[in-house]
Input
Amino acid sequence: MAGILQRRIWMLFAAIITAAGCIMGYLISNLDVQETLLPPGSLRVIEVDEVLQQTRQKKGYEQYISGKEQAEKPQREIIIEAGTYIRAEGEDIRILKDYEGMQGKSLHTGETGEVEWSVDVPESGLYNLSAVYYPVEGKSSAIERALYIDGELPFAEAAYMQFDRVWVNEKDVVEQDNQGNDLRPRQVEKPEWMEETFQDSNGYQLTPFQFFLEKGKHSLVLKSSREPMVIRSLRLFNEQPVLPYAETVAAQLSDVDDQPKDILIRIEGEHAVRKSSPTLYPTSERSSSAVSPYSASQVRINTIGGYNWRLPGQWIEWEVDVPESGLYHIGFTAQQNFVKGIYSNRRLTIDGEVPFVEMNQAPFRYQSDYRIDLLGGRKEPYRFQLEKGKHVLRLENSLGDFAPLIRNVEDSLYNLNSMYRRILMITGTKPDEFRDYRVEMQIPDLLDVFAGESKRLKEVASQLRLLSGQSSDQEALIKTMVQQLEEMIEKPDTIPRRLAAYKTNTGGLGTWVQQAREQPLEIDALYITSIDQEIPDSGLGPFAKLGHEIRTFYHSFFIDYNQIGNVADSKDQRTVTVWIGSGRDQANTMKTMIDKTFTPNSGINVNLKLVNMGTLLPATLAGEGPDIAMQIGNDLPVNFAMRNSAVDLTQFSDYQKVEQEFRGSAIVPYVYASGVYALPETQTFNMLFYRKDVLEELGLEVPKTWDEVEALLAILSKNHMEFGMPIVTQANMQGVNIPPNSQYATMLLQNGGAFYRNDGKESDLDSKIGIETFKRWTEFYTDYKLEREYDFANRFRTGQMPIGLTDYTMYNQLSVFAPEIRGLWGFVPVPGTVQPDGTLNRDVPGGGSAVMMLKSAKDQEAAWEFMKWWTSSPVQAEFGREMEGLMGAAARYPTANIKALDSLPWPAEDYANLKAQFETVKGIPEVPGGYFTGRHLFNAFYKTVVGQMEARESIMDYTQYIQDEIRVKRHEFGLP
Output
């Protein structure tokens, strides 16, 4: 009894502390800092010193428009019919008549090619340009075109004109799984005719681009970069200025007695009618009781936006039916707990029009929980004139007053990285502490650039503080850079030994740019209320929060968080248990696809479990393993096969047909004793990434052969720059196999070598080709002192490593991670080896992951049906698009399926290079004892490069260990 009483006292004590914490947390979170909101556009323009104009910034829109702001803006409208083009090149260009309800001739343009029109401008001046277009079916990403005027890009940003698609929920009603949880609505495209004004896809320019055109004839060219589209017309015009709120009729009206009363319209955020991106799907919020619908125990779709709604230009639309004409307030139940120190901006349009200037940037400030946000503030909210009937409200992500600050920091980062490279050319990465390099003398404008950037960043920090109303970590990071620049200006002799800290701080600036561009916002509901009505704040109080915490704590004892989606019970006749080791987002997406298409069509239920795949072997040995294991490494299928724990897939009658979905190289690692024991899911390989601007500075061409690489290495070394060979490193955790180094494998394959001979019974690394390849590979490190381990993305970003070989998925990371070098880098197939007949061999090894059926699967036919479905072209393509829609371009899926990869939204030029390399990918076979190959290749490498042992002797010694292990394993498993 005493023990029970003591436990109850402790539980009561814990409940009191929890309650106190919730109440204090709520009170603290509602201590809003009453910042003075600056009128939009009231910040002074940051002046840039003349020395800083010697950068790529000269080619940007800022420099293009500079000096032209006062030019005439003719109030004329010039329509260019798309069908009247004078020149067209490329694929799939054709005239369409009366297309999708649009009268007249429209022009279909493909994913590549260009179209030219001639236009006669009657009056010189600045013009806006728009296009009326229809987003025909493509690869589900934004459409991209480059605009040329009179044969030239008017400014750098004109190369990336984007045109949105329209996305909606596939079904109006939210479906549920058999556990009572809401399923995330699938997003489908709903194309319609739209007019888009040409504007900055980065969001740095808050108004549409203006183009200066002299009187007379001009040519306009749209060059396809990504996705097809149908164009009806182009239009030159000038947008009408928007009035400030104080000058609107709604603001000036003093007598409001005859305005609508007692009207409160609530629209759930998740009921949005259109979105610009499939990432803007309705979401589930389980951390607050303020949302509706609410459940503490089950998943409910109740909000929209969140972290996915973070990028400039993304928009969401809702439809509202106003019962009576008059003045209304507009408010939101919203959560902005993502960015602190700055705030999230949104641009509000009603029926396509901005009601007044202030709505170009409506701020949503930081708070840790949901709150009611009235546009204009609670004291004097803005009044909106709405007519009776249906209206469309759009919130578009806008950088607002932060745009010029972010743009300045990005340009500053580019300049500072450029200076870093120039210093590096003199001092190298490890300067001598006792040597005076006099870098300020050898780089004449160095201190001027540092002074100019210090001044610019100081002004940015000052304006950040004005916008946020308080000091923040955002401001502190910039001030750290300023402080270092000032110290380097004051004591230039210390610059070389400060390089490491300088690189760290510029890396911090790069992260700042990336994060500052992201302004998330989560919407639970929006309200249209008569001006006499208050918005209810149900679920927002401290006691509601306390009740929510208690309920979720209670239910946590009964919910199995490892189960995803529908769970089959014992009554179900055919069930497959599948383990997946990736993230929850991937598992949820996969389960949604299973429940929507696979189970209804096949009658086979799937229990999908999210587990640590390190438990696969012990679970299988204990008889508790799954029927199917997904996303496993290349080495596992053969290791399970030799232990008679995996199923030979060739026993199924339609295997040969399924195998045709993949390149032969993807199957090779899963072949054992004439059987195939897995199907490939993903396949990756190396590409050669290079910085266009840095190579141009050095007067270098992209190498096509290893001899050209060696010539390039000499020049890079002279300038203290680096070439990135695939890293040579240990496994990231004990017990994990090391695959053979991809650079050695590349050179071995190109020389006609192989890893094994005699049907996998012996290692072939001690052959003449294997030894010579090993010798040349290690010479890159002994003769040219290449780095063995490094962070490629950061060094590539700064230009310290302007060229390197790495996995092609790095493309996705760089696209998101380094916006300041957009358009300044590319990737091409790896360098090759010239063959005796003069041809160039560019073979590369492939890596990847697989899906495997365990021998313990009770219903192997059902498991095979699932594996076929999962690796099929349409399903892999859909999963790839869903993941990119869910997590952005950084999550582009490297599927092994040939047709599915073709359908993913790669820019046309980049995909042509990727596909060219894919054709030469070779698989590396797995053999019993083969895990020693990568391990001892690594040991031999370090023995030669670090231990200074002769290359031939080193590889011969360690190959003997590999031979012995292969022999032992073959004997262990009774193999000849």
Summary: The chain has 26 helices and 44 strands. The first strand starts at residue 78 and ends at 81. The CA atoms of residues 130 and 365 lie 33 Å apart.
